[in-house]
Structure formats: structure tokens, C-alpha cells
Amino acid sequence: MVDQPGEVSLYRVDATPREFLRLESMPALCNALSATEQEAREAPAGDIVLRLDPITGLITNSAFDESVFDYSAAYENSLHFSPSFQAYADELASRLIDTHGLKGRRIVEIGSGPGHFLAALCDQAEATGLGFDPSFDPARSHPVESDRIQIRAEAYPPADPEAAVDADFICGRHVLEHLQDPVGVLRRIRESIGERLDVGLYFEVPNTTWILENRAVWDVIYEHVNYFTEPALDHLLAQSGFERTDGGVSFGEQYLWVEASPAPMDRVVDPISSADLERLTKLVESFETDIRGAIERWSREVDTMVEAGTVALWGTGSKGVTFLNLVPAGREIASVVDINPRKHGLFVPGTGQRVVGPEDLIADPPTSVIVMNPLYRDEIAETLSGLGITADVVSL
Q1: What is the CATH number of the domain that holds 141?
Q2: Which of 262, 285, 308 is the last residue before a domain boundary?
Q3: Entry pTM
Q4: Same domain, 304 and 252
């Protein structure tokens, strides 16, 4: 991470964060659907102003305001109803168990939700697990039934540090991007670990390099305060008293993951290298211009599809909600579909469309189906075929 002699250090020339994207009045919580159309149209919204920090490589939403929303049991982002995603999660659990020797060990998951992944880890490894998630409500969060796990409706590390001290493995999947102070949280975790240098860690976040390279503006959402590339994630770990032991990309390169171990907390951390900063700068320079063109192109394509027949959008996670709100023609899409039954009958924030299940398409079969994530295209096409629906399936 230290520049070689003779290299030009861009961060020494101008250490001012670089603004490169503005999106106004975006849904504050894509994964919190509303009970009525009116509530959905009036759902909390906020501006997104992305800036690249030339010292750390971290991209943040400088306009983020946590008072705009509050995570609650209405927050529903489970992907485990998809066989494709479940296969990915099960394979990841198996790999972590083998890599870290988790048989019979004690596992802590940060941001565990109802406990799907934690239960998979603990059931396969015959381990015990403790999950932490402030939005967890056992009355409404559909907790996973497993004798091996418990979930606490609080942040991690908890007020009682003993819950972390005896953990053999700590993981956090798609949590760091939601934290306003990820360094502070990770430092508290490091302090809670103390001298137990054998504790393993696994963190997974959206891969911002993939987002920038693929102009995937549909993955830019208000609830994500931070956007990590590999250099930024490594820098964060170093700042927090951890060091990377392994890492890579997964799930069609859409996810960035890192495994880490405790390290000295008082070491000096260098800025990201000039080479890493130059690569990031080039990626962000044309992002806003290119995504504006992508939004206009998709609006024209949706208009064409609507003229030809009935259009359905499949997937009301972050990608789908952002697409519907960013693409002007998105409000013309008649059917919004999701396989998660907990979303059926609820309404999309911002645009107000009602979410239906796949079977609801039979009464009025679509002629075109827009798939928000290409990784699910085959799965969705098979479902449509099973329902006797012949449609043109288009993925982003």
C-alpha cells in the first residue's frame, strides 16, 4: 500500500473527496415495503451524493441522514426463497466451516436477520451461534427454527463484551455498507476480542468495482452509506486492527469478500496506493454520464415493451425498487413480482406498485419480463415455463 520511489501520489496532490454522482429523492429503504399504495408513494426518501475519498479509497454517500428512516421488523431483504441464492449460501457455509475448522465451535454473526445463514453454518458444523440484529423482532421477523442459534435484537458488540470474547468465528455479511462509522464498530469488535488472535473473521459487501464497471446504478441505494472496493476494504480492516488473510469476489462478481485475523491496533496505516487511486478515479469519472444514458435507454425500452403488451418486473429487492424509481417509464410497468411471499400484497416505495407472486401472472400473462439480476434469469425462466407463461425474458 506504500508508493514506490518516483511514483506520483495523487492523494498528495489533492486529498479532497471527489463527488461523482447525485441522485435526488430516492427511497430511503428499498427493502421496507408499505401496506398501502398511498403509504408507499409517501415513503421516506433521501438524496444520494457519492464521493470518493482519495486517502482510504472508500466511497460514501455524503448526504446520508440516519434520521430519515429506522430499521424495523418491516425491513425484509431475505434472498433465501431463491434456490440459486440458497445454493450459494450453503456452499459458502461449507467453505467457511472447512477453512476455519468450525466443527463444534461458537459463531457470532453481525446483522444476522432472522438467522438463515447462521443456522446453515451451525447446523452443518454442529456449532452454536449467536446472532445480533437491531431490527430483529421474533414476533414479526420469521425467525429460523434451529436449536443451535439465538438472535439478539441489538447491535454488535453488545454492552456485555463477554458475548464476543468467547466467539471462535465472527462474520458479517452485507452489514459494513450500512454503518455510518464502520471503523468505530470494527475497532470495538477488535477490542472485544482482546488477545485471542486465533479468532477468524469473514466480511462480505457489495462489490463496488463491479457496480462501477457495469454501470449498475440499480445497486446504488440510500441505505448503503459506504461502497467498498478491494483497496478500501483492506484499508478499513487495517485501520480497525485486523489484517486480511484471504479475499476475492463471489456471486457473479457482485459480492466482495475478505477473511481476516486480529492484528495490532496501534500500527500506522498508509493511504491506498497511487495505482489503486488512479484505477478508482478512472472508474468514477464517467460513471454518472454513462448511467444517465443507461437510464434513458431503459426508459425507451420499457416504453417499447409496454406498447407491445403487458410488462412485468421480477424482483422487488434493492435493484428492482431503484429501477422503478429511476427509470421514468418504470411507473408504466403493470406487474411487479417477487417469490418472497412476505412481500406479496405490499407496495413498492416511491412508485406504489403492488407486489404479486408468480402465480398471479397466470390471469394476465406478461409478454415481457424484466429480470433485475441476470444470475436469476434461468431460475425465473423455468418458473415462468412451469406456469405455462411464454414471455420475452430480458435481464439487466
Answers
A1: 3.40.50.150
A2: 285
A3: 0.91
A4: no
Report how far residue 333's alpha carbon sits from residue 340's, in angstroms, rounded to the nearest whole number.
Answer: 19
Is residue 346, in this structure, part of any structural domain at all?
A: yes
Same domain, 279 and 293: no
Full pLDDT tens readout for the chain, 396 residues: 333 333 333 334 467 899 999 999 999 999 888 999 999 999 999 999 999 999 999 999 999 998 887 665 566 666 767 788 899 999 999 999 999 999 999 999 999 988 999 999 999 999 999 999 887 877 666 667 788 999 998 888 877 766 555 899 999 999 999 999 999 999 999 988 888 889 999 999 999 999 999 999 999 999 999 999 999 999 999 999 999 999 999 999 999 999 999 998 778 899 999 999 999 999 999 898 899 999 999 999 999 999 999 999 999 999 999 999 999 999 999 899 999 998 999 999 999 999 999 999 999 999 999 999 999 999 999 999 999 999 999 998
The kind and range of the H/E element at 204 are strand 200-206
**What CA–CA distances, in Å, run from 166 to 105, 146, 192, 198?**
10, 21, 10, 11
Domain that holds residue 312: 288-395
Q: Judge whether 43 lies within some domain.
A: no
Structurally, how many domains does the chain consist of? 2
Do 264 and 362 belong together in one domain? Answer: no
Taking each helix axis from N to C end, the angle separating 116-125 and 83-100, rounded to the nearest 10 degrees, works out to 50
Point out the domain boundary residue: 285, 309, 329.
Answer: 285
Report the SS3 class of residue 21. Answer: strand
Q: How many CB atoms lie within 10 A of CB 362?
A: 10
In 209-361, beta strands by DSSP E: 226-227, 242-250, 255-262, 311-314, 335-337, 355-356
In a domain, residue 35? The reply is no
Q: How many residues does the chain have?
A: 396
Domain assignment of residue 293, yes or no: yes
d(CA 62, CA 39): 27
Distance (Å, rounded) from C-alpha 254 to C-alpha 257? 10
